[in-house]
Design goal:
Layout (H helix, E strand, L loop, with lengths): L4 H11 L1 H11 L13 E2 L2 E12 L4 H6 L16 E9 L4 E8 L5 H11 L6 E5 L6 H14 L2 E5 L7 E5 L5 E8 L6 E18 L4 E10 L9 H8 L4 H13 L11 H29 L8 H18 L5 H18 L8 E2 L20 E10 L2
Parallel strand pairs: 2-5, 5-6
Antiparallel strand pairs: 1-2, 2-3, 3-4, 6-10, 7-8, 8-9, 9-10, 9-12, 11-12
Helix pairs in contact: 2-8, 8-9, 8-10, 9-10
Length: 385
C-alpha cells in the first residue's frame, strides 16, 4: 500500500516523539565488554562522550511556524533552514548511542544535556568526556550526585578564562583545585567542586621539522595522579573526537538522501532522528559481532558495509521470512558474516597529517589544490602556565 508523505506525517504525529524517546533508555544499552573490548575502557571505566549536532529541517509551513531558525555562528545572519538540535550520549569504542534529547525552539546544548541527565543516569563506572561547551562548573555540579551514585567520573576540556583556586600541585605537574559552582538562573553560589586541573600541550612534528602545537586545559574528577597520570588523560581526551565520527556515520550513511530530513513537522523530524539512533544501535551490535569473529576492534569494521549487508538481510526477511527455514536462515546469516569478515575490515591508518585548508574556502584559509599529507610524530607535554 502506497502512502503519501503528508499521510505518513499525519500518522507519525499521532504517535508523538515522546513515546519513542521513552523507549530509548530501554533499547540503548552499553555494548562493550571489559574483557573483550579493552579500547572502550580506561582502566575499569567505560568511556562515554556527550556532544551536540544539528539536523537541517525542510522549509514547510508547519516547521517554519514551530521551529526557530538559529544561526550557528554569531553574526552569520538567519540560516536557510531551521535546525533540530540533538545532544547525544555515545559509548566510545563502539559508537553505540546511549541516550539523547532533542530541541527545535532555540534550546542550547547545555539545556538539552541537563534534560538528558535528569532523565537517565550514566552507565555504572563511566568516564564522561566532553568538550569546552560542556566544561562549566554549574553542569559538573549538577552531575555530581549522579557521578557518586554510579561511581563515575568526568574529563572535560574547559575555556581558558574560567577561574579555579589552586590548592596543591601533584607529582605529574597537575593541580588540585577548588572551583566555585554558581546557579545559572540566580547567579548564586551553590557549592565548591574539588577537581584536578591539567594544562598540556600536544605537538605534531613532520619529517621536515615543522612543529605545530595545541594548548589544552582539562578538569577531571580523577584526583589520583599515580593511577591516572596527566599525560595519559591528555592523550585519552582525543578519544572524544570519536563522537564526531559517529555523527558523520549518522548523517552520511544512515541518512544518505540529502542534507535535509524527510519529515514535514518538527515532531516527525524528532521521530526520524530517534529512529536513526535505534538503527545506529543495531549497526553497532552487528559491527561488534563481525569484529569479534574477525578478531579486531569494532571501529576497524566498516560502518557503511555492515549497514548495506544488514539492510539487505532485513529486506529479505521482510519479504520472505516465512519461505526460509530456521536452518537455512542461520546458514544465510553465517555466510553474510563470513563475507563481512573478509570485506569490511579497515586497514590501520598511519599517523599522518594534512594541511588545514579547504577545497572551497568560505574564510581566509588557503585553498586545497593538491591533496597532500605528511608523516608526523606526536608528543604530549604537561605545562604549568
Amino acid at each position: 500500500m502506497r502512502i503519501s508523505d503528508s499521510a505518513l506525517s499525519q500518522r507519525a504525529l499521532s504517535i508523538g516523539e515522546k513515546l519513542i524517546e521513552e523507549i530509548l533508555p530501554i533499547a540503548l544499552r552499553p555494548l562493550a565488554d571489559r574483557e573483550r573490548d579493552v579500547q572502550a575502557f580506561y582502566h575499569a571505566y567505560r568511556l562515554v562522550a556527550i556532544d551536540g549536532t544539528r539536523f537541517n529541517l525542510r522549509n514547510t509551513g508547519t516547521i517554519n511556524e514551530q521551529a526557530s531558525k538559529v544561526a550557528c555562528n554569531r553574526g552569520s545572519g538567519e540560516p536557510a533552514f531551521a535546525h533540530l538540535l540533538a545532544v547525544v550520549l555515545v559509548e566510545l569504542g563502539m559508537h553505540q548511542p546511549l541516550g539523547t534529547r532533542l530541541g527545535w525552539q532555540g534550546e542550547g546544548e547545555l539545556t538539552l544535556a541537563r534534560q538528558l541527565f535528569a532523565a537517565q543516569d550514566l552507565p555504572e563506572r563511566s568516564l564522561l568526556l566532553a568538550d569546552r561547551l560542556f566544561g562549566y562548573p554549574s553542569l559538573i555540579w549538577g552531575l555530581w550526585s549522579m557521578l557518586r551514585r554510579t561511581h563515575s567520573h568526568v574529563l572535560v576540556r574547559i575555556k581558558s578564562n574560567l577561574k579555579a583556586k589552586r590548592t596543591r600541585q601533584l607529582a605529574d605537574g597537575s593541580w588540585l583545585v577548588e572551583v566555585k559552582a554558581v546557579d545559572p538562573s540566580t547567579r548564586k553560589k551553590v557549592g565548591v567542586l574539588e577537581l584536578r586541573e591539567i594544562y598540556g600541550r600536544v605537538c605534531y612534528e613532520d619529517q621536515n621539522g615543522h612543529r605545530s602545537c595545541l594548548q589544552i586545559r582539562l578538569w577531571t574528577s580523577l584526583l589520583d595522579d599515580t593511577t591516572s597520570p596527566a599525560t595519559e588523560l591528555i592523550a585519552l581526551y582525543a578519544a572524544r573526537w570519536e563522537e564526531e565520527l559517529f555523527f558523520r556515520e549518522l548523517k552520511s550513511h544512515l541518512h544518505a538522501r540529502g542534507e535535509l530530513l524527510d519529515a514535514l513537522t518538527p515532531q516527525t523530524a524528532a521521530q526520524e532522528v530517534l529512529a536513526m539512533l535505534l538503527a545506529a544501535a543495531l549497526i553497532a551490535k552487528q559491527r561488534q559481532s563481525v569484529a569479534s569473529a574477525a578478531g579486531v576492534e569494532p571501529l576497524r569494521i566498516s560502518f557503511a558495509k555492515v549497514l548495506h549487508k544488514t539492510a539487505a538481510l532485513c529486506e529479505l526477511l521482510q519479504v520472505g521470512a516465512d519461505l526460509i527455514t530456521p536452518q537455512a536462515l542461520a546458514q544465510w546469516i553465517q555466510r553474510l558474516l563470513d563475507d563481512l569478515i573478509y570485506d569490511a575490515v579497515i586497514k590501520k591508518r598511519r599517523p599522518r597529517t594534512c594541511p588545514r585548508t579547504l577545497r572551497q574556502p568560505t574564510k581566509d584559509w588557503p585553498k586545497t589544490k593538491v591533496a597532500q599529507s605528511k608523516r608526523v610524530v606526536k608528543t604530549i607535554e604537561v605545562t604549568n602556565p
